[in-house]
Structures are given as C-alpha cells and as structure tokens.
Records
---
Amino acid sequence: MSQKTVLTEALKRYFGFDTFKGNQEAIIGSLLDGNDVFVLMPTGGGKSLCYQLPSLLMEGTAIVISPLIALMKNQVDAMRNYSEEDGVAHFLNSSLNKSAIDRVKSDILSGKTKLLYVAPESLTKDEYVEFLKNVPISFYAVDEAHCISEWGHDFRPEYRRIRPIINEIGKRPVIALTATATPKVQHDIQKNLAMLDAKVYKSSFNRQNLYYEIRPKTANTDKEIIKFIKGMEGKSGIVYCLSRKKVEELAEMLQVNDIKALPYHAGMDVATRSANQDAFLYEKVDVIVATIAFGMGIDKPDVRFVIHYDMPKSLEGYYQETGRAGRDGGEGLCVTFYAARDLQKMEKFIQNKPVAEQEIGRQLLLETASYAESSVCRRMSLLHYFGEKYEKDNCGNCDNCLNPKKKVEAKDYLSAALETIVALKEKFKADHVIDVMKGKMTNDVKSYHHEDLELFGCEEATDAKLLNAVLRQGVIAGYIERDIENYGLLKITELGKKFLKKPVSFKIVEDNEFNDDEETEVVKSGAGCAADPELYSILKDLRKKEAKKVGLPPYVLFQDPSLEAMATTYPITIDELANIAGVGTGKAKRYGEEFVKVIKKHVEENEIDRPEDLIVRTVANKSKVKIAIIHAIDRKIPLEEIARSKGMEFSELLDDIEAIVNSGTKINLNYYIDEVLDDDQQADIFEYFKESEKGDLDEAYRELGDEYTEEEIRLVRIKFLSEMGF
C-alpha cells in the first residue's frame, strides 16, 4: 500500500477527514521518512495535525514542546476524543501533582502514550531528562517555534535550550511549527534548532476571509466596542488588551452592559483561568477579554471577531492574534484601536533591557506603527512583512481598500530619498534619512557632520509624514530594503539602482492621520466628543457657576469627560448621574442636584428621546480592587507595596486612586506624601492646582516638571482634589 493511501486512510480513521489541507500530507510524509521539517503555516491552517497524525502512525512517543499549560490541556482533550484510550495523550507541567505525574509516566512506559506535551521549563528538569532517556521517542515537535527567536513576538529564553536537551535525551527527527515568522525569525529558529537542512513547507499568509481595520483610539472607544459587540450578538469574539488591569475593567464593563464576557490573564489563579477558557470554548459566554496569554493553539473555529483594545508590540503578534478569527473560513472581523502614544509607552517599558533587546523592540514597534498609520492595503503590508508578495492593488477586505485614498505622484520624492540613502552610505535608519532630507540639526546629524552633505535639507518644505510614506511604500515596491540584521538600516535594492538611473512614475497614498502629538491628549475632550454640544456648553457654564459658589476650580466638581458623558446620555436622576464615569455616588449627591435639573429641563424643552440603547453603564467605581486600595491606604501601607500586591505599575495605582477621588471618595495620602515631599514643596504644587483653571496634568508637568517628578505632581493633585472637593 502506498504512503499516500496509508495517510489518507489514517486521516479518515482517526480524525474523520477525507482530504488533507494545503501542505499537510507532504509535511507528514517527510516526517515519516525521517527528515527534520520546518512548517510555516498561518493560524487555522491545521498545524497540530502535522504532528498528531504521524505520532499515531510511528513507533514510540512523540514529544511536543509547547509554551502554555492551557494549550496543552486543550490539545490533550482533543486527542483523547479521537481515541478510545485516554492514555494516548498526556502533558507534563507544573500543574500536576506527584500522583498525576506517576500516572503519566506509567502510561508512557506501557506504550499507551503516543503524544506527550511538555513545557520547555519542564523538559530541562533533570528528573524528566533521565526518565525520557529510557523512552522510545518517535520525534520531537517544537510548537510555537517563534518563541526561540529574539526577533519573534514572544521570545522565551528557555526555548534556546531545547536543542541541547534533545541531544541529551536522544536524537530523533524534529518538526518545528509556527504561524508567524519573518524570514529573519525563520532562519533564527532553524539555526538554533540545528535544522538548517530541514525540509521547509511555507503556506501563504493570506487569510482572504479576514477583514482588517484600524480605528483611532478616542474617549468613546469603550462605547464603540460595546456597540460593535452588540451588533455581533450571539457570535464569539476575543478582545485583547495589553494590561491585566484593563482586561478586568473591560470584562466588567461588558458584563454590566449585558454582554456575556469573562476575563483571562496570567495573573488569575489556574482554576479560574481554565474555567473561563472552557466557558468560552463551550459557548457559555460569547466574549473573552484577554491578554495575549489567551488563544495560543486554542482550536475554536468560529471566532467571528478579534478586537485589539491596544495595538500589539509587533506585527507577528498582531497577525497571530487576528488569525484566531474565522479559522473555519467564515466571517472574521479584526478591528484594532490605535494611538501612537500607546506605542510610545511600550517603548518606555523596554528602556531597562539590554541595548540589543531595546533595538529589536524599537524596530518591532516601528513596523507596527508603520502598519497602523499606512493607507496602503493592510493585506499587502502584512504579506510583505512576512516575505510574501501580494499582486493585487485592492484586496476589497480592509479599511484602506474599502475607503481608498487618492494616489499622488512621488517620483521626485523617491529619487531624493534614494539619493540621500546613497549619500549616507546605507548606514542609517528611516528617521535619520528623513532628518537629513528635512535639514534638521539633530545630535546625530551634528555628530556625523551630515549638515555638510549636498542633499541636507533637500526636502525642507516637505511634510515628514509624506516622506515616511515614501520610504514605507518604497520598501513595499522593492526599491528599498530594511536590513533587519542591522536594526532596520535602509539599503537600496537593484530595482532602486535602476530607478535612480531612469526614474519612472511612483504613485503613493499618504498615511492616515492619527493624533500623535505628545503635547495634546490622544483623547480630545470637549463638545466634539459629546452627542449634544449645546447641552455640553450649558453644563460647562453651570459647572463654573457652582464651582464659584464653593470657591473651587471647576474641574474639582466634574471633569470634562464626565460633562461629555452627561451631554451624551442625559442622566435625569441622581442615581443615573452617579453611574456616569468619574462621578460616583458621593459627587452626585454633593454637586449633582442642579445638573440633573438642567439636563431634565433641556430634555423636555427640546423633546429629546433619551437614547437608552446608547447609555453605556459603567462599573461602580468602588470595585473589589478599589475597595482593597482604600483599605490599604487607611492602614497607611506604602503605595509601592500596594502596587506590588495588586500586580500594578505605580502609575496604574495612581490612576485608580485618582478614579476613587473623582468618583466622590475622600483619600488621605499625607502619610506617604510627607515622606517624599517637604511642606514647602507640597505647598508649591498645591498652590499651582488652586490657581489652575483646568487642573490639566500635562500642563502641570510642563510648568513644574523641572523641579518635580510626574508621580510627585500627581500625588499632590490627588491631595488637592481630596481636600478641596469634599
């Protein structure tokens, strides 16, 4: 019987499928022939079958090295469903007790177990290495292999130790699998696993059924998400956030707005995390709000939407996470909320890492920003990033293609850019190339004496965003290449050299507009964010009048976003007002009476139908975490200790304390502030906020930043709001 017939029959017998997908059959055949195999296959392409089926056909036990406990449990459950014998698949990791480990070992030694899932940390333990030396091993599978590479989006140092351990246990064929790898990452994986001669099977990264869209992050993002999910009623979706805190908050927000949602992040206890994952898989809830810890290898084919509340740190991460939508080939909507400031915050987080890691991190963030801000077809940009050419001009299934911008001729700009790259001897990144073209006297320009170049200032009058678009689209068109090995230095390709000799038409689309000005809030407050600008104006005047009565700056009563929400949802009772973000019961009772009277009168006089469906219910500000913070402050526990115990950054803790004060609870931080600032310093900052019209923090940083840190200014502002507002 031919290998093809054997494989087809086995596929039908064990998994119930009549035919293989894509490269599956060739991959499995190659592994059965004893070859090392490298598999690059997008999410939903059927990677797991590439090692599951051969494990059932080969003698011995296949070792699958996998990064997540949740992933292992999910895959083991799936394999047991395909077999009459529960012992056919097991996992070994830190979640098992001694008796469970003994049972696993017994099944392996008896020959029942064909697939053993192991975390890389467990694989390196001496007891497991010694045990596996005595086990007949069919092959090793390294799943999520991008974790090996520092250039991958989920680098894990323990993955670098896999090859030496394999050599120690006993050499057998290796199959490495990933859903996302640039050419650089692919080479890194093969080199580290000593499988440069492996058979490589690369599937197309094009997922035609996925719709990609980037939206600007604004004050109304939470509302947009709620409205979007309610429009997808009964359908499964994932919402990704970068911080655990935001995961908890957003999940709670969705729940109070009658959306069946649960949180998932690594800080939760194992039992809750596992229960929440199962609730999503078994459709007890529609939405999971998660950090990127969720979803690796989770085989749920009918996820209909993936929302990113925050732009991911890399395009690999973005591609993998969006790839969890529409795995069955059906609808898959991928919507991401982007603010340049989010990426700038991420850049701050990598500043304490080694220089090489910082450079890699910045390069990955730069690629992500380029993708988000570009007006080029999203599909084309993604495929180019992964080394694949997309031939069409318009994919018809992304925001940029459905709302195309007019193309402008950029032949002269590209010529100037290429000439500048040549003049710089191909040794600099895009930002420096643009600085030279714009004639900017930066420190780097001065230190390299690039102001002496003939081309210095050749595009002085041209907008930097346009020059950025020229460079980005010059890369996609093949005139320029980024030297990834050297952190993105720009070099000219052969095609670029031909262009310089004989320029041809080069049309580009200008980048999308995103507010990335550090001196302004990404979220613009004001009437423009309120549904009823007239009411917003009335409420601002009322706030001024009421603040004057009590001798306080207006922002101490209610801040602008709270007024915007009032002018959008029209609260006409104290209870409804208390539910507005940043108000709370205390402030509603203290200052709210005149406000609800004015709103009620405005609604009646203008015959306004209050849009109940638009009213986004907010979570009570005194949630469990906030109550715990209040109690800890009452006990005078140092703020660093509170932040550490809650798994927060110090700035996140201050966010929560500000929210507590804004919602009407008095907080006394004197015990802590007295330790960090003397009386004169406190009085200096306090006086500033007393005289400030808006109490704006950015303004305060600019005025006081030379003498005080951000944290010190925020602490005294909290003291001011607490003492003056109550």
---
Amino acid sequence: MVANIAETLSGVASLHGSRVGLIEAATGRSFTFAEVHQASMSYAAYLYGQGVEKETRVMLMVKPSMDFVALTFALFTIGATVILIDPGMGFSNLRRCIAHVKPQVLIGTPPALVFSWVYYRRFRSIGKRFCCGRGFGNDIRAQLDRGQPPCTFSKTDSQDLAAILFTTGSTGPPKGVCYTHAIFAAQLDLIRHYYGIGPDDIDQPGFPLFALFSLALGARVIVPDMNPSRPALVDPEKFTTSIEQHQVTYSFGSPAIWRVVSNYCRRKNKVLSSLRKVLMAGAPVPGDLIERVAAILPAGAQIDIPYGATESLPIVSITGEQVVGETWALTKQGKGACVGLPLPGISILVIEPVDGPIEDISEITVKGAGEIGEIIVSGSVITASYYQRDQETRGAKIADGHRLWHRMGDMGYLDDTNRLWFCGRKAHCVHTPAGTMYPILCEAIFNTHEAVFRSALVGVRGKNDITLPAIVVEKEKTNTIDDTLLITQLRALAKTSTLTRTIDTIFIHPSFPVDIRHNAKIFREQLSIWATKQSGGVL
C-alpha cells in the first residue's frame, strides 16, 4: 500500500505520460498525464516554499478543473490536510464547518477569497491565502510557467491524515470525516478491481472527487461543464455533448444528474453509444429511473449502484439489471430498497438498535435474516473518526479488537442470500404506540400513485403528546389532479397495505426541502415541523 496517495499519480505519469489524461469540457484545454503530474509537483514546490507543510490544514475552494486536480495531489504530496467542503450544503452550514475545522491556509477562486474576507470571523484562523484565478490578488497559476525547485513526497505514513471531507448534514449538522492516505488507497483498490476501471477508460465524473480516482487509475478524465453543487440543474445538452465528443466510457453521478440527462435523451431520441458503464450513488435509485437510463445506453452497458456514506464508501453494490429484474417489484410492495451484496473485504451486520454509544462489539445483539435493525459495517474503507468531534465519533464507532465497525445510521435487513435491504435512516423512523414505522417501506406504497413524485413519512404531535404517522407528498409537476381528490385516493391506497393502514393524515407540499449535493435526500425533520404546523399543532 502506498504511504502517500499522491504516489499513484506519479506512477500513472511514468507509465502513460504522453497520453491525454484530462480535458476541461468548458474550456477545451487538454493535458497529458505528465503535464498534470508536472503541474501538481510545481504547485507542491511553490506551496511548500510558501510555508505550507505536513499537517497544515488547507481549505481548497477551486472549481473542478485541472487546477483542482493538480492542487489536491500537490497538497497530498506535501502531506498537508486537504479540507473539502461542498458549497452546496448552504452558507450557514458552510460557515459553521469552516469555523469548526479552522483552516490555516485557503486556496480559492476570487469569489471564494472575497467570501473569506466578508465572513472574516469564520475565517480568522487563516494565515495565508492563495488565489486561483484572475481578478483578485496574484494568480497562483502563474507559478506553473516558472521553474520550481524539485519537490519530493513528504514522509507520510499511510495512516496520516490526508483530507477532511464533510457529510451532507441530512440528519444533523455536517461533520468532518477524517480520511487517511490508507482509506483513499483502499477505495481506489475497490474501484479498480470491482468496477473494472483502468487505462482503457474515459470518465466524465459528476462528482469532482471521483476525477482523482480516475486519474490515479490511468483513466482519462473529462471535467464536465456543470456546477457539481447543483446536480439537478445540469445542462443535459452540454453533459451529453461532451460524452459524445470525447467518447466517454463511464460516468459517475447522482440520480439527480441522470434523471435530467435521461429525460433529455429520450426527448431527443439520443443514445449515448460510447458509455459502457454508469455509476449512480448518493441516494436510493428508483427502478423507473434505472429503466430510463438503460434506454439511453447501448446494448451491453451496465448500471452500477454503490451504497455507502462519506464515512464508509463503497461498501455494497447492486446492478441496475438486478434491481429492475429482481428487487424493484418487492420495493414497490414495501419490502425496502435492495442495495446489494457486500463488496470484497467488507463485512455487514444488522443489530438491535441502540440509542447511545456502543463501546465494544460484545455489547451488540445481531438480528437474523429478514429482521430489521441498525446497519453496521467493517472493512478497509471504514474511516476511524470525525475531526475533533469525540462525542460523535464515540456514537458512530464500535471497537472490535484491532477492528473497527461503523454505525451507518441506517435501518435495514439482510435477506437469506446476504443482500442488504435499506429501510430508511434511523433518525427518520416514526415511533408510534403501534410500533416503529420505516420511511422507505411506507413511502413505497404512496409512490406507486402516478401523481406522486416523492413522499415522506413524518411524525406529527397528537393529543397527549402521542406521535402520529403522516405522509407528506410532492406531486409530479405535470400532473394536474386536484389536491383534495389526490388525498382521498392516497388514503384509500394506504388501506391496501398493513404497512400504511394506520396512516390517515396526508399533506401536499409544493416542493420538498432536499440536500443540494444530491437533490434527493429529503429533510424529513423540516417536513415534520411543517406538517405539525399544517395540522394546527395537535391532531
């Protein structure tokens, strides 16, 4: 295993240096693997000369581009800790994360530097700022045109901190996840061997961090002309044009991207003939979306759906063919969303839910096949801690000798073939006097109605502070059914399943609050407050 994940780029450059490694779709600029590596080493030498050293916390706020890739590998080379915070999480969460992690250096675009001065109190830990772009300060990119002294890899250990990546915050404040060089290497190994990605591939990633993996595997990267923080607003014409122009063979993105792209391609009667693989992740992927995406791919192309979390990814995977052919019909009946079999080297257990910390694996009670419980996972891609959040780390990790288990915060079960079925976030379950109700199971019943775009199970306060289950629905934009009639039909639909028979309270919401990163993770806590207000406070 490499001691420094930046060594992977050096190795690829030595093998494939003259080949084109990266193309920016927006600018048309192209770079060989050798040029990307040289830019990375030049940035590393310059930044090191400016006082950026091992363990320096560096916040990187640069748009997806050659510079983003080169700067990230440069910071890895130095041994600095790269801080990546998705601006799509919203300004309040962004400011909160920055204040918590206390970056010492900021490398950002001109707007990012202006932002850091406007909110100076949140950025007061920063001692140095470097501008990547014209119009504000000295453009760091000018260093690429100047000779820099040689830069060697920092003497890092594989367990040294390489990056801090933040969770989406869909069930609480975003938390900084500590990524070591070993975690990145383990992820790279799984992607290489399980998904079969290598030098013969051309990637167009809808998620910027995946570009680093692709380059490290020797695949060419096409940086799409899009804002990765707003996947639902992707321009499908630009996205598909670059796929066709550069003969992209695989692409990783959220369901939000592929929903827009597949709808566009169907309208234009377009097939993306070069694609042989599509990876969708970040949220449950419905069978109808899989069918739409499959219809725009050539024969033999495969759709893969990895499952995991920022703290542990990937851990489980399923193909689109398996979902459509084997599990989707059961999902619509309220059996949960099948996310597949554990990946090589990954162990999954379903245990009796516990509200507080679990100090040791000896304290758990393992559930049997088909029994819903809390999902825990162990393996080489499992991160060990959150950055300076000891309480949250204790609540999420379970010691097992030299091994560590991560509590996913999800509920689910293993079937008799060891496939994992997702039933919803633990924090989103609704606990009623009649028992616990699981979001994915209940919502599936309502989602079968043609007028329903998506639904959310929430708890509302009833008399004597009893929690009552309610369903909030967001209608399909093109459906004009009357709200009152829809509610009547949904109440009748609820009575057809033992899962939803007790649900009588239904609301129509104009547009669900969702995470911006994936445009799919529903903020059910906000909907619960909204529904309670709609009901007058007490039902």
